[in-house]
Sequence to fold (838 residues):
Amino acid sequence: MNQPRSLVAVVDDDESVRESLPDLVREFGFAVEAYPSAEAFLAAGNLAETRCLVLDIGMPGMSGPELHRELRRRQRAIPVVFITAHQDETIRPRLLAEGAVECLFKPFSDADLLAALNTALRVA
Amino acid sequence: MEARLDHSSGEIRRLQRCISDLVGLLALPAIWTGGDVTLIGRTLLDALREMLDLDLVYVRMRSPSDEVPLEMARVVADRGLPTSATAIGDQLRGWLGDGMAVAPRTVLVTIGGQDLSVAPLRLGLQEDLGMLVAASRRPDFPGQTDRLLLNVAANHAALGLREAHLLAAQRRLAGELDRRVADRTRELARANAELRNEVAERRAVEDRLRWEERQLKQSEARKAAILDSALECIVTIDHEGRITEFNPAAERTFGYARDHAIGSLLADLIVPPEQREAHRLGFVRYLATGESRLLGRRLEMTAMRADGSRFPVELSITRIPVDGPPSFTGYLRDITERREYEASIRRSEAFLAEAQRLSLTGSFSWRLPGDEISWSEQLYRIFGFEPGSAVSLERIASRVHPDDRAVLGEMVLAARTSGRDFEFEHRIRLPDDSIRHLHLVAHAVPGRSGNREYIGAVQDVTDRRQSELALSKARSDLAHVTRVSTLGALTASIAHEVNQPLSGIITNAGTCLRMLAADPPNVEGARETARRTIRDGNRASEVITRLRGLFSGKDIASEPLDLNDAAREVLALSLGELQQAGVVSRLELAEDLPTVHGDRVQLQQVMLNLVRNAADAMAAIEDRPRQLLIRTAHEGSDAVRLMVEDSGVGIDPEQIEHLFDAFYTTKEAGMGVGLSVSRSIIDRHQGRLWATPNRGPGATFGFTVPCLATGRSP
Fold:
């Protein structure tokens, strides 16, 4: 807990997720920032500090995968863990192929999320 | 002189008496006028016997009508004299001799001792009229007065007799004349009668002749009428082949006027030049031998019109039965139209055969009860039999697909017994094991004496069936894709809606546990996350409520509806899908089912859902038929029931209570929404939806809908 905690950003348009998920991530021992949209995240200017993105796929405006592509375009290779409420299994291999660390389907267990975050931070 | 005057008074009296007698005699001719010989004889004898007091007076007179003379006599009785005139005549001949009339002298004879003076007198010159004999016993007989009176009497008698003879002769002549006239009259009458008979006979003969002439004329008229009105050409020819009759039909057909035709040689007129020689030879042969290839037969040949054009004719020739040289009647009919008709039939048949070949349609006839079957060529091709070979029901059955033989047998039996038209589809298996689908339509044609014939067509519909199957599969696939994509979208949407709060619940619950497990426990944080867990749980519940509202939110459109009709429609909609899934479906619909009030579309959604569930439940079944039964029934007096029964995997009794929960599913690809939504729909109809395991394999799902009193059928 003494060492500076890695910053995990949660980007989700659903308010309940922005409420509950940061609490859990903090319980894992990470620092957390939550944003309601991709645009809000980019505007916040915390790209350099952010060690991992927990990114919702379907959002108004820029979608999760679009933000992911935008970051790569800017050569900000932040590890991304996608989360989604859509049960479309076909999207996962595509996202992984594009470099995503993981794609979790809601509802997911806290263990799955922790494992994904750990993987992401190792990659980073 | 004086002396004489002194004659005695006796003498005077005698003289007076003599004068009186003379007067009496002179009166006799007046009596005799018109009388016959017998009258003269009788009155003469009576008058003389009285006047002269004679003992015998006899007269013999020539009969005017007979050779034998008439003899009459008067005698005084008891003087010994014969009484009959003939006997007296004989006695007188004895006294006077045969020539008594030649020597008329008085003869004295003695009879019975008494002297009798017999005085004969001639009647007429030389006794040509007869003789008169008077005899008396008086001694002075015949005195002067006696002689005077006898002579006067004899003279008068002679005159009277002559007159009587003349009269008799006149009468005889008159009679003869009458007889002759009568004879002649009779002859004339006979001749007349004969003449009359002859006239009558002649008249009868004339009548007969006239009648025959009339008959002949009528016959001629009839013949002419027949000839004129006949549609056939009637041409008669004589033994030289010259035309003697040419009727109007012949005029029209051949284009020759009758006047022109008559007298012409038939061969020159209507036989085409190239056939004339054959015609002539045939005619000559017939005349020579009586042998003909044409007589009494119906044959077809080519004839020629006046304009030289040829046309086919049907010809029959008969010999006219008359004496003398033979003559013939030919009946000709222009058969151009018939030929064209025949050609048209042949073309039609060819077209039909071609059409049968192209459309893969064969035709057949099947005569009952003998089972005589005839097939078109195409039908042989369809069945793969040798064309023309004998066809029997057994042979047909040998080709029919084993699964369809029972159907064929039923159709044959029904055809035999009912006589109704029939139509059905069956498959045949050809020797190369290929399967063909045939569609058969047969129409019953009643025949004579109760027999029946079926005329039918058989079409090879294999390609169509395969196309239909392919189409059905495509449609079914499309329906499936549509359903999947619709459901997929719905599922995704529902999942997204539900997963959000679920995700929140799990995350919060997980966080809560971690906060409580920390040292020291973050009780405040745990409380907060537990609160959020409850909130998210409520959110999830709201989603479900919204979802139900999505299906049943709108007011049900209540309308009278027949559940049987609705069930039929649903099955019809699902049929392709069910067949594709190898499911055999069946309807068992209750009769007199009351009308219910409800939303047709929503109730059909429920039925469709139950039917699809049933099909899904049978998808993995391989060891038994996949059977689906939709039944309707009365449910008590105020509701109707519909059940969908399957032979699928069945349901676990323990699962039954969860079946209608939202998102509960036993299917791998299922969402667990259908039955939940179905239950909401039925609930809104004040009905009940339930499920029950079958006694055998599979399960039955059913629902009830109340039928309102107003909605019932009367």
